[in-house]
């Protein structure tokens, strides 16, 4: 640390640059892809493909792989997958059409491992994309994940069937659209932290995830919530909690 | 019916007046209190005390008792109760401070009886007023009611404990505030018509019953819904269904 | 019931599984299509075609027919109809382009019959899809339905022309877009339960069914309401009421 | 007009001042009370008492009487009435507690007369304040008004009873709270211009006049609309139409 | 009138049918096109092409021409125009691409004439469609219209240039998008009834006519308002006022 | 567990009751206070004093102390404090007027201890109540808490001053009103899970915590969020995470 | 600057503390009152009295006077004024009941002077508080202000009368409630930067400043906007612009 | 000025025309393109290509170049660029695909020069369009602009790196999407006027710039704000401030 302070004293670094270095990041000339944040929080940055052309997406992915060894792309169409495969012909590409995610890694890239498990609970096929996005970021962070599918508040028996599994997890992500009641029901049955993930199903009044979002925010039990369809945020937050648990486990 | 048409032909009645008479109502000079609607739909009109002075409320109640033998008053404060008792000293007064209802009847008033049962399910004390309003109108319509209290989506065991009772009812009213998930959970367990009654609990984003209302409207199971805190409407709608069932039972 | 409890005691069933069985449903390996709910509530599950590919829709329909003898598909385009016909070549297919519904049944499938009638009231062609969806689910539940079309609050004479029919029904579904006043007008004329079905017509401020929804929620008469364009829910709720009436009639 | 232009040429008046004078108004030193607008549009300015102290209200009323011979005060409490009576001891004071209006005139003040009639239709006591405000401004503008009370969409017979009167009016103001359907129903029955006046009754979702406002804006018939509880605006707009009709009648 | 009442007395007509006839309309078997409303209110019904196929639109237009001699179609695309021309080859077709209106009349159709004038004020090209829709219905109702274009609150000089014309009109429609201030500015300068017509220009926060609508509803001067882009309603309401004025002029 | 299953087999317990017992809760006759949930999730139930009379609050507190040894009361006024002190004269009472919390414990009550630390970051005095509520529930759950006050996005230096402390915590709650940017800024600097707690400061457009809530939901970094002013929920969620960490630490 | 870097090098200061010092602020132990921000931006911090007790307000005011020589208090009631006068008996107190502001200065306090002028335009008495708040902060920053009152879009002549004055200002703040059109009209007439200040007048749909805010945001001319009733922000922003102009003038 | 007044006196000019001329604008027959406003405020009018056909856009651009020597076109697609190039073959065309702007000038056109600098701060590529639009209008107004890119609240180091540059600017535009916190952070570090420019990034609850807009409106520091994506307005407002500063500098 001494050398950083010397650099400040000598004028080579501004105090802000010094602070930045001490905080574990650097301002590279690379611009757009924030390798620093990845280092800083241990959360892989995601490239949101939606609203970008396949070509723009692939270029960013290449920059990410070059800088950090890996690119995580969300909300990708088939055209995005094709463009990434074409441009990163040397990389290992793993794409999941249901989750609409792509992960590209340079050969030999080693993921971290977190000794903690995250359960991802969904009610139906319409939750698959958001849940898959969460699963992708968790896998990249190294947590082990368990998918608990096809449960729903209108089918209580299915929730109860999985009770033991739900209680064994270190953290739970519970995705739900429509009225968004599932996280409330699940959180009432476990003593694990639950993250509610509203999904943009539903139509008409309160549709597009609005009712689900408000229902989770107003839950009569203990929950925290992320944005509608924000599978990446839910996964990364669960990953941060899982890593805190795993770090404690390692001590 | 002949004499009505004669009265039209002779000019004593306008076609509109004739239609009115055929439809079972008359335009009395009494103005405000609609005794006709009561006759027509079999639903006692309610006098909403909120926003009226005790004196105005009592005057309307007196008009209602005189016209129809009974007054049903909702959202009444202690002052409203006192004013009604003072002005209708000859009537039988039955007031319920938790439901904030008053029923005044002339001596000897006979309620109808409906051979059908309505279950009213609530999660906590904050649902008591809306549920009590529903119970009051149902009692006046003659249906038998069953209160199932202190159940909630965060306490699934309590719902399951009451399953048999829930399934025995002809109609269910399920009240819920906060995220409003209880009607969805209950409707998933029974084959009875369920009416969702959102309650204005909750604060902050989506509070005051907004999340509950949207959650019930977006329910992933089969429900119909009434306005926030609209206990009177929920009760009357359940009463109409109960009467349809009872009428069929009587055939 | 004894054998279920034995299975619990012996560890073959968890208490939750036991509860599930007692409640009349089973968790099949089939996953997605909930034959159990159909058995439990007597309401045919609907497959929402909107947002699914023709292929996905047809696959789910095949699963539904295999499990329960029937598939009910809503919001189907011509492409969905073609895919269902191609995949279920042995089934009887009945599709209604105005209602955008498809019903596929295995040969010899027998619908239930409910001895009760449901009136479906609409104001114009723009209500036809929602009303047709309601009619489809009611037909599958076995209720007899009567369509009362082209009435509207700006044409009171037409409402009054149908008064007798409206009063003969056991339940009424009243669909309306724009200002959504028709259910209020109809409910003021009958003593039958009325379910308001807002339709997403209208444009500009309060358009897309918003004004209609709020108007029905705020109705000055007794109504319950379903979501905008939720013809399936309106139909199923009317069907549950009709069945309750018919069951009483059968006693 | 020549002298005004001379004043511009000589620099006594700016072009803007000239324009103002030609347009029929003057910028007095009196400040707050716009006697000019009254002259210009023939609509008496209203002093909104709500949010002003009794003393402030009375002071403005005195300024209005001094400038234009008359003060029209809306949303006045008893305290406002008392303060106006005390400060304007020489004026004729006419206050209406249901409409919450006060009109103060200097002795001998002569109202205009408009040979046209405006119908003001209301559904119940909760519409009385807004309707009374409209009636007050119309009386001050000189139009004759007819009150048609206690009609409502849930009581169609009452609407039909008044059909002849409704059709005789030159303009109609139709006030309604809750779902706000009455203006639509009335406008479907007459060939008179109808102004919808939403009233802030109703509670819960879409309450406080929101559903009524949206319903009138979305009406499936021909209407124009004013703000919630804006009785003064509805009355003044109806008065402008009535005067246009009366002016034509006088030609 | 006597024969209608006889028909009621003899059972040939229900009271509702009688009322309908007295009110000036009949329930034809034609269903959809409400020729009756046209007779009743003197306002030509509009066929909204948006959301209908060209074929459906042309079929409705044919029905309208057959029933009432004329069809007025709004929000029509080129395809709608072509289909109408093809199906109504004998009719006179007048289409306006800026207003997106089509008027088809049977040969020899005679429009009414209203001796009153309506000014239609707009700020720019984006108001042309709504204003043109208003002009079309006014022309069909027989009123004379004056277009005052390219004025706006940010160009006060242009408003003032047209002041004399504005003051000569019997009614004014003032269209505005963005912040919607023009109707307020115009209404402050004239003593004519002003109808505010919000237009769906604007983007971002309060865009799509929302700010314009709210601004007109909250206007600090006297106005009434119609829905966003509701040129037909604005025109028809102005036409009803113009006709009331013209009728008075004729007396 | 054997004896529970025996009780099921013998009919003493329903499967639902069995499930309930296995889940760690019992349905007591006490009704309102859910001691079971406390046992189940390890989160002390809170009694929300707001909207309850002092007497009702004290009665519930007495029930809570009797059942679980402790009562946690939130949003309490001075009158609530006095009533609780009067009714629970034997209990230890700890009230915090800034946080508006009361904790009552029976003599000798022993809190759990969690070997994990939670940082509670606030920007100003207006965040004190929500933050204090979070601190109270964390203290009752046994976590150690650190308050980091008077930091804000408009005073970045203060945030940076506390960087080391922020990074040492196991979980962070960051409260913010107005634009709610502080949790985003903090989460960008640490690799700890951050829970955003919006506070109902701010006025006008987006006030009362609305902008803060939306800003946290839309954060460009990784966060989860609770309702506006939901200090209790934020604290309990942080407590669940802290306990998960501590349990891992203990392994 | 050298000594700061030395302090960093020696470990006396963290880089963040160094950055803070270089930026012109220090973290005092005083906590709440941000004297630093005042130094940094040259904008006096305001103490918002609303929601604080008179005593809390006076205590903060004392801290402000002690730290910076001056306290600026907004939204103060008479009770706040009395408390400030009592606690700061040695200070010079200047309170303005219409603006609801208090300024307390230590004897001999010298305000800065900015050689630039700010015009504050209002339409009526209801804008006085917000405009007065803006004027207070501008006076404390040293700018000269000109009040242009009682102009409004419905009284264009008054706007035009003040055109010369409006054009002489360096910056304009234009306050408006209701439909908020005045800033648009003014900005169309001048080439000066205009800041729109929406005011919470208006009632019903779009009331409480909502329509005014949206109208300014959607203005068809060039404006920037602050929050509803945010007189302090409008004044401070105008002050920053005025100072930039004055600094340029001084060069 | 004398001759204008003479023209008024002689009737050649109306007072309004005189006022218009004095204000520096004329009503040309050209209609749509407001060359006058450009002269009046020194802000080049923008032609919004979005919603216009390429041909319409090019025609307007030709009119603008003919009238004022220059056309500024915003939100242009490639097709718009091609059409403008084709129609204005003699003009100098400068198009920026990232900003989606086109500037066409007649040969030899001379831009003004403003001796003041505007900083435009952005967080990422999604802010490029709005920022580029602001830069385009500033360049046309003659201000020098500095782009500060890729800073964001989650990367504080980057903000601090640019602190010196930020403080050297005369005005700052700070664009931000998602939670919109960047303008608040920047404004807390400088004593320059800051204009917040919300950008329509973000999805789900509060997406499309809604959270960013509300966050800037609620900022706890001194800012003024423009509409979502309103780069042109932000640039023009900054340009007006810059010119005021430059004019002072020139004195």
Structural overview:
By secondary structure, the first copy, chain A, is α/β, with parallel strands linked by helices. Chain A has 11 helices and 9 strands. Chain A has helices at residues 2-9, 15-22, 35-41, 54-68, 78-87, 128-141, 156-161, 163-168, 182-187, 210-217, 231-250; strands at 46-48, 70-74, 92-96, 101-105, 117-121, 144-148, 171-176, 194-198, 224-225. Chain A has a 5-stranded parallel sheet with strand order 6-5-7-8-9. Chain A has a 4-stranded mixed sheet with strand order 1-2-4-3, sandwiched between helices. In chain A, helix 1 (2-9) runs antiparallel to helix 2 (15-22), helix 4 (54-68) packs across helix 5 and helix 6 (128-141) packs parallel to helix 11. The first copy, chain A, is globular and about 55 Å long.
Low-pLDDT runs of chain A: 21-33
Helix content of chain A: 40-55%
How much strand content do the residues of chain A show? 15-25%
Helix-strand pattern of chain A, N to C? HHHEHEHEEEHEHHEHEHEH
- What is the number of independent domains of chain A? 2
Dominant shape of chain A: globular
- As a whole number of angstroms, the C-alpha radius of gyration of chain A is 20 Å
Mean pLDDT of chain A: 86
Tell me which protein chains meet in the greatest interface and how many residues each side has.
D-E, 44 and 44 residues
User: Count of helical segments of chain A?
Assistant: 11
The CATH architecture of the largest domain in chain A is 3-Layer(aba) Sandwich
